[in-house]
Amino acid sequence: MWNRPRFDLKVRLTLRVAAISAACFAAISAYFLITADRAAHARIDDIAAIVAKTLELQQGKVQWVASPRSDFPNLDPVSAYVMTPGLCLAFRGPGGDMLQRFCSGAPTPASPPPQLFAAFYRSLFDPGREAARPVIVRGAKLGETVVSVDPAVQTAEAWHEAGRLMLALAIALPLLCVLVYAALARALRPTRMIGSGLERIAAGDLTTRLPPFDLAELSAIRDVFNHLAESLDIALAERAELTRKLIALQDEERRHLARELHDEFGQSLAAIRALASSARQTAAQDCPDLLGECDGIARTATGMMETLRGALFRLRPPDVEELGLVASLEGLVAGWNGRSRGQTRFTIRFDGTFESLPAATSASLYRIVQEALTNAAKHAGATRVSLELAMHTEEIALAIDDDGRSNDPAAKSGMGLLGMRERVAALRGQLSFEAAPNGGSALRVVIPLAAADRQPLDRAA
Which GO molecular function entries does the Swiss-Prot or TrEMBL record give (predicted)? Predict the structure, then answer.
C-alpha cells in the first residue's frame, strides 16, 4: 500500500478559509473596480450633456441678439467649473473636424500602477472612452461635444482604489489565518485525547475511556469509542474465560491420560519386566541360548518405562502450587539438562519474587515454558537455550532465546506454539515469536499483573 502524505487538519482548513477569503476579497475588488468604471463613465456623460446644453444656450443667445460677431463655440465658460485632471473637452463639427479642444494636465502619480495591472484594467474596462452629445438648435444639429479622460489617469485612480483593498487584504488575511488556526487548534484539541485513547486500546488497555467533549461531533465519536472499548473488554474477558475453561479441561484430560498410562501401560511394562526376569532364570537352568532374548526383552521394557516416565512428567507436571513456580521451573530445566546428555544446555534466571502469583497463573507459565523448551530442543535443534523470568511493577516478562533453526515450520506453527498462544491469551498477555538478530529464535511473553490477579484460584495443572 502506498504511503500517502498526511496533512494537518488545522492547516488544511486554515488554507481553505484563506482561499475563500482571498476569493471574497477578489470579488469585492472586482465589484469596486466595475462600480468605479461605471461612475467615471457616468460622470463624463453628465459633463458631455452639460457642455452640449451650454453650447446650445450660447448659440441661442447669438441668434437672439443677432450679433454679427460670433464666438461659437466657446468652451471657456464651462471648462472653468468642470475641468479635472486628465479631462478633455472638445467640439466636433458636422464634418467631423475638431473645432475646439481643451485638456487639463495629468499630474504624475506618486505610485504609478504596475504594468500588469494597467494592461489587465485596459483590457477589461477600456479607459479613455469618449462620451459624445449632439448640439441641436431649432432642430438643426450644429455638431457634438466630446468628453474623455486620459487612460493613464483613470487607470491610476483604479489602482489607487484597488491598492487600498489589497492593503486591507494583506493585513486582514494573515490575521484571519492566525485566528482561524488558533480557533481550530482549540476546537480540535480533544482529537489528541482520541488518538491517545486509540493507541492505548491498540496496546491492549481496554479500560481506556474518553471524557465528555463540548462539540457534538466529538461527543458522538466519544460515545462510539467508549462503547467499542467496553464491548471489546467484555468480549476478551469472555474469550479469556472460555480459554481458561478449555485449558482446564485439557489439563484434566492430561491428568486422566496420565492416570490411565500409569495404571494400565505402566503395570503392563512392569509385568513384562518381571516375566522377562523369570524367563531368564528358567533359561539359565534349562536353555542358556535364550538368555540374550530375555535380556533384550528386559532392556526394551526398561527403555519403554523411561519413556513413559518422561511422558507422564510432561502430562502431569509437579504440583506448582505446593512447590512454587521457581522450584518447578528449576526442576524442569534440570530434567531437560539430564535428558539431553550434554547435547543441549539449558539455563534459567529469575528476577523478582513469584510467591504471590495465583496458582492458575503459575501453572500457565509453567506450561508455556514447558512447550517452549520442547520446541527449542526437539523442533529447532538448539544447542543452547536460555530462559529469563522477570517480575516488574505492572507485568511479568518471560524471555526464551535459543540458537536453533528459526525457520523450522514446526517450531513456528506447531500445536505447542498454538497452546502457548491460548494460555497467553487467557492471561490477557502478549506473545511474540521471531528470529533473533544473531540467529536462532526469540520468544517473548508479557503478562499484565492486573490480568494475573484476576485469575481464578482453580488449579490449571
Answer: kinase activity
